[in-house]
Write a structure and sequence with these properties.
Chain A: It is found in: Membrane. Chain A: Keywords: Cell cycle, Cell division, Cell shape, Membrane, Transmembrane, Transmembrane helix. Chain A: InterPro entries: Cell_cycle_FtsW-rel_CS, FtsW/RodA. Chain A: This is peptidoglycan glycosyltransferase. Chain A: It comes from Arsenicicoccus piscis. The complex is a heterodimer of chains A (456) and B (489). Chain A is mainly α and 456 residues long. Chain A has one domain. In chain A, 66% of the residues lie in helices and 3% in strands. Chain A has 15 helices and four strands. In chain A, the strands form two sheets. Chain A has a two-stranded antiparallel ribbon with strand order 1-2. Chain A is globular, with a radius of gyration of 23 Å. By secondary structure, chain B is α+β, with helices and mostly antiparallel strands. Among the domains of chain B are: 32 residues; 271 residues, 3-Layer(aba) Sandwich (Beta-lactamase). Chain B has 18 helices and 21 strands. In chain B, the strands form seven sheets. A six-stranded mixed beta sheet of chain B has the order 3-2-1-6-16-17, with no helix packed on it. In chain B, helix 11 packs across helix 13, helix 11 crosses helix 14 and helix 11 packs across helix 17. The chains are: A mainly alpha (456), B alpha+beta (489).
């Protein structure tokens, strides 16, 4: 059916390689900056770190050439850049005497483990559609992971939230991994049910409403996210899960009514929770007036960002350590303080690029499951960055979530590098020229095309 | 499913945009406000990161930073403590900068002022350790010491000015305090000292020369009334004015009495304006106040600088004459009673204007801003604040004031060989409290351009050590004389 042509599509792998070198250079520049500001000398282990960082990037790059040569060339360098800058910032705050102790070496190990894990995912998972077979397994896995911190013995409450588990010496936030498992489940479930959810229903005041019994899934998701909010006291994760579900529901059904219903339900649920829980009322109070209780985490973060101004104090020259959780929840404020507004914009733009590349992959890929999964994963990154950065900059009340790739913490790194691996895998399919699409895929694509029925 | 994915992209873009907008607001538009917000530990730490500039008087530091070995790299010390505390203020880790130049010129001393922009760039390029700018003051250390010692244990203030430039040569406020107790790194002792100073009923941390509860001026205000009378053209120095034994106040059952409890000049009910000032004649000046009206007094006072909030660079409270006074109130205001309120600085500025042909110079405390190798970054240029009177009026009032010292109530300010012009004041407080004793003067009268000249104001609160027996000539004039001698050498 297809003729052999001498045309060789541009895979972008060379661009990726060059970007990896550039990214390594940027991170080493930042590292040198910290060393000069804190000790007055270049760090002695710079060459080792540069080699290690480039090695990690190259290993991934080679895996891509081998197993996913059409994958998006920007995702890997951007993830490596964010990971590297986060590491430098954690290393920089390690110089100060904070009660959290030295965290950079552990974060480095976790980064390497995460990248290795991501490579394994990429190599083992030859086709993302295989995940669809385990839709309900992922659901069970996701729910179990989310509920683990509530169990006695392994649950490890910190700072009023029950989102950690403790296994021996390791502390873990299983919610981060659950995010991916649930995205896979949502994609598998919705691609199956989308016709029912989108086509059947009545109109009310010119507004198409779903049948009552089709409301089941969204009700379950809503109840579940509220349970997370109430029992784990984790507003951030609750917002993330429910937002992710509503967004994927909308993509699957193309019906705005789901968004309206979802928003109403979340606002209603959050309001009731606000009435019931003093710690939520406190968060809202600090959102409206950061100085309401004198100097606190929110106002300290704001003062830190303000002291950075447009150009920042320079890496190693500010006082990010004053703000609590400067390496984890507040790493965005720490970076803003030392890199300034322009540095913060650059970092946020890197996240914008990841989201844009993920959504582009969703548009480009041919199967519905892939579309939903890529869109969901990409949007979850956007939502997570918004919940964190928006909380710090007072767009919304502060909730505790990690900044992808940057915050100190192993579970977050593993989860987000896995997101990158999945997006790379799907983008390999999306960008593969038709000539190489196998017959099975063509059949699938054909079937998908005939499924598009619009009655309205 | 592609169009909802695109719309999802739009939603994501909106989410990011909101964070861009809010961070721009925080880090650009709100940055200065947040940076200066009370309790901002970063601002305080930043000020300890670099060596803070010195405050210099006659080449000696009265405030300087010394290197320490603890977390805060620098400790602020004040070698002359109480003598200069009202000028230096304090720079405390707990309580921030306050009380004087430490806060008024904080941006220069800390090195963050926009005026130091080019220097900061050169520090950046040359890699030198950045340091704050130093301030060289206009203070004459001999005059400052003389004023401080002469005031002794009495409450009050002394201000000395160079009439021709507005440079502040001495500024003393008592009781004073030792700023070193607030700047040590022993936080417990600092907290204790702070509490004690704030609980002290005598308010040692208030600079009485420029702020605090302002003083009623009493008879030193008659200089302003004399100037208003001469400027009106209706009066001359040798022309006769009514000087009754007591002046009935219109629409009131009260009368203005003279401190002599009778005629100002025995046997006379009409005396010259010069005699009225010499004898500090209340009934004569009260009559002039009624004739001129309250508005004329107020407008003349404002030409001397009343009503202006000055920055020297510390904020000096504006002196005031009330508006819309009736005749009785105008009569009282003309002799410095009713609601006329002044700072010692304003009184010194009034004498200085008379000395300087009627021109009021803007008072200033910092003569030069220096970098850490004492190179000059900025030099204050004397500036005219206003024209209070014509030069004829000024020289007439000067002669009248000279006569006060030579023939009248200001005898204790006489210095042999120096033509001193002055005016006493004894401001009654009522309710049985001893009066405030005032004296203001300048010398020498008619100085040539190459001669030093000085204008002084002295106030001793609640009669000082003399109590109810206190008076301007007895209590305040000797202090003014010592300051004048210290300046003229």
């Amino acid at each position: 059916m297809t003729t052999v042509s001498s045309y060789r599509p541009n895979t972008g792998r060379t661009v990726e390689l060059l970007l990896l070198v550039l990214v390594t250079g940027i991170i080493m520049l930042a590292y040198a900056n910290v060393g000069l500001a804190q000790t007055g000398a270049l760090p002695t282990d710079m060459v080792t770190y540069a080699a290690g960082l480039l090695g990690i990037g190259l290993a991934f790059h080679i895996a891509l050439r081998w197993r996913a040569k059409y994958a998006d060339p920007l995702l890997l360098p951007i993830a490596l850049l964010l990971n590297g800058l986060g590491l430098v910032m954690i290393h920089r705050i390690d110089f100060e005497n904070t009660y959290e102790g030295v965290q950079a070496p552990r974060q480095l190990v976790w980064s390497a483990l995460s990248v290795v894990f991501a490579i394994v995912v990429l190599v083992v998972l030859r086709d993302h559609r295989r995940l669809r077979r385990y839709t309900y397994t992922f659901m069970v896995g996701g729910v179990v992971l989310l509920l683990l911190p509530l169990l006695p013995f392994i649950g490890d409450p910190h700072y009023g939230s029950r989102i950690w588990i403790k296994l021996g010496p390791f502390s873990f936030q299983p919610g981060e991994i659950a995010k991916i498992l649930l995205a896979v489940f949502f994609a598998g479930y919705l691609v199956q049910k989308r016709d029912v959810l989108s086509l059947v229903g009545r109109r009310f005041l010119g507004f198409p409403l779903p049948r009552m019994r089709d409301l089941g899934p969204i009700l379950v998701a809503w109840a579940f996210s509220l349970a997370v909010l109430v029992f784990e006291k984790d507003l951030g994760s609750s917002l993330l899960f429910f937002g992710l579900f509503v967004a994927m529901l909308y993509v699957a059904t193309e019906r705005v009514s789901w968004i309206a219903i979802g928003l109403l339900m979340f606002v209603g649920g959050a309001y009731v929770a606000w009435l019931l829980f003093p710690h939520l009322q406190q968060r809202v109070q600090l959102w409206l007036d950061p100085f309401a209780t004198g100097i606190n985490q929110v106002s300290m973060g704001l003062m830190g960002m303000a002291s950075g101004g447009l150009f920042g104090t320079g890496l190693g020259s500010g006082h990010p350590e004053i703000t609590p959780f400067a390496k984890s929840d507040y790493i965005v404020a720490s970076l803003a303080e030392e890199l300034g507004l322009f540095g913060l914009f650059a970092i946020l733009l890197m996240f914008v690029l990841i989201v844009e590349r993920g959504l582009r992959t969703a548009i480009g890929v041919r199967d519905g499951f892939g579309k939903l999964l890529a869109a969901g994963l990409a949007f979850s990154v956007a939502l997570q960055v918004f919940v964190v950065a928006g909380g710090i900059t007072r767009v919304i009340p502060l909730t505790g979530l990690t900044t992808p790739f940057m915050s100190a913490g192993g579970s977050s790194l593993i989860a987000n590098w896995t997101v990158i691996a999945l997006l790379l895998r799907i983008s390999d399919q999306a960008r593969r020229p038709l000539a190489e699409v196998d017959e099975e895929e063509q059949a699938a694509a054909g079937a998908a095309a005939t499924q598009v029925v619009k009655l309205r | 499913m592609n169009s909802p994915i695109r719309r999802l992209g739009l939603v994501a873009a909106l989410l990011f945009f909101s964070v861009f907008a809010s961070s721009t607001y925080i880090m650009f538009f709100q940055a200065k406000e947040l940076y200066n917000h009370q309790g901002n530990r970063r601002t305080l730490l930043a000020s300890y990161d670099r060596e803070r500039g010195q405050i210099l008087v006659g080449g000696d530091a009265v405030a300087r930073s010394t290197a320490t070995k603890d977390d805060l790299k620098w400790e602020r010390t004040y070698p002359q403590g109480e003598l200069y505390a009202p000028l230096t203020g304090y720079f405390s880790f707990i309580y921030g900068a306050g009380g004087g130049l430490e806060s008024a010129d904080d941006d220069l001393l800390s090195g963050t002022s926009d005026k130091l922009f080019y220097r900061r760039i050169s520090e950046l390029i040359s890699g030198r350790q950045p340091a704050g700018a130093s301030l060289d003051l206009t203070i004459n250390p001999d005059a400052q010491k003389a004023a401080y010692d002469a005031l002794g244990d009495q409450k009050g203030a002394v201000v000395a000015l160079d009439p021709r430039t507005g440079a502040i040569l001495a500024m003393v406020s008592k009781p004073s305090y030792d700023p070193n107790t607030l700047t040590s790194h022993n936080l417990n002792s600092v907290t204790a000292a702070w509490k004690q100073l704030n609980a002290d009923a005598n308010k040692p941390m208030v600079n009485r020369a420029i702020a605090g509860n302002l003083y009623p001026p009493g008879s030193v205000f008659k200089i302003v009334t004399s100037a208003a009378a001469l400027e009106s053209g209706k009066y001359t120095a040798d022309g006769l004015v009514d000087a009754p034994r007591e002046l009935p106040l219109p629409l009131s059952s009260k009368a203005l009495t003279n401190w002599q409890n009778g005629a100002c000049v025995s046997g006379k009910t009409r005396i010259t304006l010069t005699q009225a000032l010499e004898t500090s004649c209340n009934s004569a000046f009260g009559g002039i106040g009624i004739a001129l009206g309250g508005d004329a007094l107020k407008s003349q006072a404002e030409k001397f600088g009343f009503g202006d909030t000055l920055r020297i660079p510390m904020r000096a409270t504006a002196s005031s004459v009330p508006a819309g006074m009736d005749k009785a109130q105008s009569a009282q205001a003309a002799i410095g009673q009713y609601d006329v309120r002044v700072t010692p600085l304003q009184v010194a500025m009034t004498s200085a204007a008379i000395a300087n042909n009627g021109i009021v110079m803007r008072p200033y405390l910092v003569s030069r801003v220096l970098d850490d190798s004492l190179g000059v970054l900025d030099q204050t240029q004397p500036e005219q604040l206003s024209k209070a009177t014509s030069s004829e009026t000024a020289s007439t009032v000067a002669r009248m004031m000279q006569s006060v010292v030579e023939n009248g109530t200001g005898s204790n300010a006489r210095i042999s060989g120096v033509a001193v012009a002055g005016k006493t004041g004894t401001a009654q407080q009522g309710n049985g409290r001893p009066p405030h004793a005032w004296f203001t003067a300048f010398a020498p009268v008619g100085a040539s351009a190459d001669q030093k000249q000085v204008a002084v104001a002295v106030v001793v609160e609640d009669g000082g050590s003399a109590g109810q027996e206190a008076g301007g000539n007895k209590t305040a004039a000797p202090i003014a004389r010592k300051v004048i001698q210290a300046v003229l050498g």
